[in-house]
Structure formats: structure tokens, C-alpha cells
């Protein structure tokens, strides 16, 4: 496998509510975050993604959807593909997600909690040596 210039869009969406109502008080839930923020997550994916040769030969591009759980410790578990793109690309994305460094966990009223994350990813291999001029969209600007 060789590395190619890669454009990866990751739009973070999360199962669950930002605020949950209880009878007496309002619970405040913060979302989990990749340490260093969304830009560091883009950097991690772009640096470590290895475009599979089989997919490269067929010029496989497109959108897929993944999910995983951020544990109280920040570890990533229960990694899965909700909507696959190509077997070889799916396997590479699963490898990257399983190897991801710890996140800052979600909290509920300041206490770390497990949190399920769903993330669409669009993968486009650009021509050798060229980078796309299109910019990554930050998830907090949606």
C-alpha cells in the first residue's frame, strides 16, 4: 500500500442530546473531543491513512459512515462501519479508528461518561503530488 494525497471530510455527529432534562435540574452533557481538536483529528487521519492498492486501481472514492464509543477513559471501543465504501477502504478506516489515541471523554455534569459517536467520512484520492484546494469543514460550523 502506498500513501496518496487524501482529502478526508469528517463531520462529527453524535447520538444523544446535548442537554437532557431531569425532574429537578438540567443535566449538562459535553461531547467527547479528539485531543487537540478537530484539526488534529484531520491530521491524524491524513497522516496515517494508507490508500489500499486494490481500491486505488479502481479509483474508489465516496462517502462512508462509521461509529464508535468513547469510553469514560477516552479509549475508543465498539468500532464499526454503518455504511461501507469498499472492503479494503473499510478495513483501513477500521484500523485507523481502533488505533486512534485517547479522546477527551464526554461528561455529564462534569463526570466522564460513555458516548457513542457517528461520523460520516468522505474519501477522495487526489492525483499524485496534488492536494485539493477544497477546505475541510469544521463540525462546529454545521
Structure description:
With 142 residues, this protein is of the alpha+beta class. It has helices at residues 38-48, 53-57, 87-99, and strands at residues 6-10, 13-14, 19-21, 26-30, 33-34, 62-70, 76-83, 103-104, 106-108, 111-113, 115-125. It contains three helices and eleven strands. Strands 1, 2, 6, 7 and 11 form a five-stranded antiparallel β-sheet that branches. A four-stranded antiparallel β-sheet has the order 3-4-9-10, with no helix packed on it. Strands 5-8 form a two-stranded antiparallel sheet. A hairpin with a 4-residue loop joins strand 3 (19-21) and strand 4 (26-30). It starts with 5 loop residues before the first strand and ends in a 17-residue tail after the last strand.
In short:
Helices cover 20% and strands 37% of the residues. It has helices spanning 38-48, 53-57, 87-99; strands at residues 6-10, 13-14, 19-21, 26-30, 33-34, 62-70, 76-83, 103-104, 106-108, 111-113, 115-125.
Layout of strands and helices, then pairs:
Elements: E1 6-10, E2 13-14, E3 19-21, E4 26-30, E5 33-34, H1 38-48, H2 53-57, E6 62-70, E7 76-83, H3 87-99, E8 103-104, E9 106-108, E10 111-113, E11 115-125
Antiparallel strand pairs: 1-11, 2-11, 3-4, 4-9, 5-8, 6-7, 6-11, 9-10
Overall strand count: 11
Return the average pLDDT rounded to an integer.
77
Largest sheet properties:
5 strands, antiparallel
Rg is 17 Å
Low-confidence stretches: 1-22, 129-142
Helix tally equals 3
What distance lies between the first and last C-alpha atoms, to the nearest angstrom?
Answer: 34 Å
Percent of residues in helices comes to 10-25%
Shape estimate: elongated
What structural category do the secondary elements indicate?
Answer: alpha+beta
Q: What's the helix-strand series?
A: EEEEEHHEEHEEEE
- How much of the sequence lies in strands comes to 35-45%
Amino acid at each position: 500500500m502506498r500513501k496518496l494525497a487524501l482529502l478526508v471530510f469528517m463531520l462529527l455527529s453524535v447520538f444523544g442530546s446535548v442537554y437532557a432534562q431531569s425532574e429537578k435540574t438540567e443535566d449538562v452533557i459535553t461531547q467527547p473531543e479528539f485531543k487537540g481538536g478537530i484539526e488534529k483529528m484531520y491530521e491524524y487521519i491524513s497522516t496515517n491513512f494508507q490508500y489500499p492498492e486494490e481500491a486505488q486501481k479502481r479509483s474508489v472514492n465516496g462517502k462512508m459512515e462509521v461509529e464508535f464509543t468513547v469510553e469514560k477513559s477516552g479509549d475508543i471501543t465498539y468500532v464499526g462501519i454503518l455504511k461501507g465504501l469498499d472492503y479494503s477502504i473499510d478495513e483501513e478506516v477500521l484500523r485507523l479508528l481502533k488505533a486512534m489515541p485517547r479522546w477527551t471523554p464526554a461528561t455529564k455534569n462534569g463526570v466522564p461518561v460513555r458516548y457513542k459517536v457517528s461520523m460520516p467520512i468522505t474519501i477522495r484520492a487526489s492525483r499524485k503530488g496534488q492536494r485539493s484546494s477544497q477546505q475541510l469543514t469544521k463540525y462546529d460550523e454545521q
